[in-house]
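Extended Data, panel c. Modelled sequence:
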Amino acid sequence: MLKIRYLEAFYHVVRLGSVIAAADALFCVPSNITKMIKELESDLSAPLFTREKGRLTVTTFGLHYYDEVCQLLALAGDIEKKYQSNTSYCTLRIGALDIAADYWLPSKIIAFQKAYPNYELKLYRGYSRELENGLLDNRYDIICSDGPLKHPEIESQAGFQSYLQKVGLPTKDSKRDSRINVYSFGNDCLYRTMIEAWIKRQPKGRYHIVDIESYQVIKALVINGFGISFVPQNVITDLQFPENIVGKELIKTETCLAWASFRNETAIEQFITFMKADENRILPATY
């Protein structure tokens, strides 16, 4: 592994022309410089210096290595100055549901980025349970997921409210006592749990849940009368579901911002505070 101190020793020997001058520049004894150079060479494919009668002469290999070391030390100096300054530099990894990533977060992320231009924001999509696990596994710093989240190591605050709206008028081979397909995303999506709860409130055996993890396919199925579904209102608008198959029945959803309670970091607090300052808690239904 490269050690900055060893590279500095090599750099000063070449630049200043002697071990003694390099030792003075690094405030150490010449024997330390000699030791660092030898250890540095032990990991390389060729010598950095030729040694004759106590003199060090940089090799052609060493000259090429020197050019690379100059760039590396300049970069190290820039990094040190950058992160010792009063300006904060951070990377925030945000995990979000599709509905949050597509409809709620864009304007807020733009506003946050303008307020904190030195922060790098990374956004990842995921299902509810995957997001929660990713938060605990330190794959995300903040998540925007279905709430409220109840976990001893997770804190959360209200994000926004939205609605799933019933779509579909089943006609294909539908009889009074036949089961109706209800299309839903899989078990990792909390919408599935909400739809299952709705089915339990209906006549027993009337509805049958079917996994379809594509709103485009769900749209095609319900348009052609093969079943029903509950779809986020904004998705209904974006995918232009026909008005005649959009029902009035709604399922309310709560989406929250969450973070690990043990992560007491300024950047996370700033993002949460920034989101909290926005009074718009209702995701507008554009249908």
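The chain has a mean pLDDT of 88. This feature is highlighted in the accompanying rendering.
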